Amino acid sequence: MTVLASRRPPAPRPGRRRGPTGLDRARRREAAALVMPSLLPILVLSVAPLLMGVLLAFTDAELVRRPDYQFVGIDNFTRLMGNSFFWDSFRIGMTWAISVTLLQLIAALGLAQLLNSGLRLQSLTRVLALIPWAMPPVVVAIMWKMIYSPNAGPLNAFLGSLGLPDDINWLADFSTALPAVIVVGVWVGMPQTTVTLLAGLQQIPAELHEAAAIDGAGAWRRFTAVTLPSLRPIITSITSLNFIWNFNSFSLVYVLTEGGPGGRTMLPMLFTYLEAFKNRNIGYAAAMGVVLVVVVVLLLAVYLRSQFRDDRFETKRKEG
Amino acid sequence: MRVFAQQLVRPAQYVALAGYIVFLGFPLLWLISASVKSSAELNSLVVNLLPQEWHWANYSEALARQGLVSSAGNSALVALASTALVILIALPASYVLARLKGAIRVAGVGWILVSQVFPVILIILPLFLILRTIGLTDSLVGLTLVHTTYTMPFALWMLQGYVAAIPVDLEEAGAMDGGNRLVVLRRIVFPLLAPGVVATAMFSFVSSWNEFFFALVLLQSPENYTLPITLSTFIGGEGKVALGPLAAGSVLAAIPSIVFFSIMQKKLTGGLMAGAVKG
Prior knowledge:
The structure holds 2 protein chains of 2 kinds.
Chain A: H1 2-7, H2 14-17, H3 22-56, H4 75-81, H5 84-115, H6 122-134, H7 137-148, H8 154-161, H9 177-203, H10 206-214, H11 219-247, H12 251-257, H13 268-277, H14 282-319
Helix pairs in contact in A: 3-14, 5-9, 5-11, 5-13, 6-9, 7-12, 9-11, 9-12, 10-11, 11-14, 13-14
Chain B: H1 2-35, H2 39-43, H3 57-64, H4 68-99, H5 103-117, H6 120-133, H7 140-164, H8 168-176, H9 181-210, H10 213-218, H11 227-235, H12 243-278
């Protein structure tokens, strides 16, 4: 799509040699007239609230009827540094987001490869792969609660039929709750990653694989030497997006466990939600939100930079 | 040795594929199966995928259940209204974003990306305060505005991708033939953009229909509940719940989005990744 737009010949730049013609000036006025009314609602409805959210982090706003509050500088943030519950929840959020993103990527890479290798049943799998993506998070949570149900759940029944312990209360046990919700997270996000990677796989020219095969490369070598490098930009962008979405996710785990048992699945979004609407400290909760955004942005910046640096390094190596 | 290994590849691939099919498909199959089982069977310790007797009554029970149909109506209302608002606002703005060069475009695209990183909590806190001062917290109008705010960046992103795919030459040809900008927009751009608008509208309908967090924060009175909230109250603290009707209601709630995604599967990823990968 963008290729089309950028391939058109560069417009002549009359400003360089002659002054702007009357036509240009009229065009620019026209553009300005289009910009204001179309961007104004976006400024009001979308940009302003987000900025206000950041500003709230520097106030002592509370969820009470009296709406006046004051700026308190960085008080919220210094308080937050010592709040060990918040940092516990932060660690859980990192464990959740990193494991789900990684497992999604691995599972999706495998499935995308299978869907790209001319097997039967492909169309069935493609349809199936859409379903988790399409379902409302609340329905997904209800569904998996039934799967994990300790008494009449199919998972325990299956384990029982294999002679394994069949009385595990997956979502209420301290040791299994987080892994159990991570599996659901992978289930939800895997399809989208698969479809994206599959689109990337189909763009790799077949000649590359053929050439590698002629050179005697086995399947694994072809995967690491041809497939992975070609998919790299797509993998980078989809893992970044997945990481953001997973770190910010709320509904799924809220309905599955409400952060329990004993806070074992208390993702940062659940924690800030409770701070804002149960403890009624809006300013403090906004500060938590800001800290989370900053951390996520920093992590992404580091990740993206390392990816781009590797890219440059590889091009140099190829040239040299 | 090598030939032997190659003969094993296909079967291994099918085994792996079967594993994926079970992992992806079984939970939904189980939900559907639960939706046609009687409650006696659901609570028994005998676990079977196929019901002993088909208990369709769950569906009528779910529909008769207090609140389910009316909250589905609320969901539809909010989803339709916020979709209309999103398209109305994003359509002209996306055109501008896609066609302009320079600072405004950079700022616009940058903001779209940043807003994707923003956690929902930072969106809802200021909106909650604003909506409270104008008395719209426990109201569908308020929820509609919040959904509009929430879906806007991504809708804008999708739409501007579709605009960028329309060759500028076409517009210039239209302008040569003497059309002013509005005529060009109406005669050339909007017809070509129609599929993109449909896709974006469906996307924003489904995000609103599925949305849980904002509705949870804003809506207090049960008559205002949207479908996800009502469903979640069924499994809440009231102890034993009727699993059959709950499963039936869940199946019904998932239908609009499943229809949407099956129609849209290719376009959605195209719109999503076009800018991210090549841009």
